[in-house]
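Fold sample X.
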Amino acid sequence: MSRVVERIWARNGVAAWALAPLSWMFGAGVAVRNAMFEFGILRSYPLALPSVSVGNLSVGGTGKTPISAWVARELLALGAKPAIVMRGYGADEPLVHARLNPTVPVISNANRVAGTLEAKARGATVVVLDDAFQHRRARRDVDFVLIAAEQGTSLRVLPAGPLREGPGALRRATAVIVTRKSATAAEAEAVAASWTGFAGAPPVAIAALQPAELVPVHSSAGPAQGLSELTGRRVLAISAIGNATAFERQLAALGAEVSSAAFADHYPFSAEDGARLAARAATVDRVVCTLKDAVKLASLWPREAAPLWYLSQAVEVERGGALIRDALRRLVPGSQP
């Protein structure tokens, strides 16, 4: 997502109003599609396993991958055998899931019904559907919908705003999870309050995606290091994610002097990109990317260049943890409260 688009969405200005007619048409199309599912004109199908979807109402940078990975770990702790089923858009997300949960199968299949059948054949007892809220063909048991606190309280649909669907779609959700990276706890609470009270709106939880440590992309750089290593350092921030601004603000909040190297979400880095970024590394003290970028850049980073690090993220549920875990327990027969 470009910074120009972010600014248009954040402001109720001329550009947003100019795009309003296109938003009305987009919203009407989405409403017609949803009505066709509600009235059975388009069919949804039960899945072969209990399922939880981690999706979003808005586009870009809500934290679906880390939250999906956290949900999988919660299910493991309850005694389940989860699998991640996802569309697999781009090569990065399946690799990230494999890194975060090495024992959890990751299945890339745009057809979530078929993907769940494959998960069952591989021994899974429950599936986590990464980015499936709009995939109405697959009938889920639990739906978590993520909204990024950094995107504010805009209720406009694409292209004048960040929403894939209007707020009424939340009637299909089990819970809304407001995620925050660079936003403050107070800002997240304000966004949570803005989504509370819609007709049929589900309960709202809040989860912080907090920086945990600096992890070397290559083991030759040594062990992981604490976040204090960023204080007062010039840092080149490499990111090809939905919300590069939030990542860069996280680094700045840790005391880094940040230079941006932001690319489009899921950008396919080339060897030439790796060489150019490595050349920029000579002008800074640290080169830091996200895990989503690290899995792609690892094989492209020149050996003679300065070490490449990624900023690991930890999920901290600040409100509504019991709500989320109770929903997950319903998917695991015999699990204890």
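Fold sample Y, listed below.
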Amino acid sequence: MIAAPVGFQCAECVAKAESTTSGPLSPMGTAVIKDAYVTKAIIGICVVLFVVEFVAGISSFVYEWGMSPAGVSLQGEWWRLMTSAFLHGSVLHILFNMYVLWVLGPTLESLFGHVRFAVLYLVAALAGGVASYTFGPFNSVSVGASGAIFGLMAALIVTGHHLRRDVTQVIVLLVINAVIGFVVPGIDWRAHLGGAVSGAVVAAVLAYAPKRSRELWQVLGVLAWVGVLVAVLTLRTAQIQQQLPTMRYGLADASAPQSTSSPHLGKTTPV
């Protein structure tokens, strides 16, 4: 028997308790992290890719890898849905997005942990691409991390409400940026809304999952939401295929003045 604060415990009980101790947990039930590695990694990837864009030529690089409904539907370039979220159209564009990511990312990563935060960010980025693909102009090209950034803002609002914290400042920030997306021409506000909806949904799944079998419910919830996005993609692609003759005619007129390496693409739009 081993002395305990109250009475005595058997050696096997003490060993079992020590082996199951997982250390301090965050308010979301995940292990407390010491550094926001994922946030820093995303910022690093975006900065490195922007340097590559600058060297290779921003316009040509964006046309090859940016979000293009025409490229996705006609040429099967599905990777554009994600690569576009790591590219930017100007120095000011990347500076603004990376600053907001640096402000919001560590807070959410400390709440959800590295893996869940990465899932939250990537699914929001995907949802932004899906929204742009589904509702955006067929011959447009858009780039930027703003869809994912809007997802983080919405996620922080949902999580803060769950934890009964004051999220007024985040709501104001989200509303101001949403209005800017509608007022300033040439901004892909569809990706903003898609990312915000996804961030809210994924954050709700992570925050409100039952404590019993929490990880299972979180995985199932996120997979269900990704399934919805895939279904929307499939339906939109089928719709485009049905309208293909009309799409090709309109695309040829819109892209004729363009002098790029990808004549099927139109105007570049920041996200």
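Sample Y note: The chain has a mean pLDDT of 84.
Also: The longest helix spans residues 91-135.
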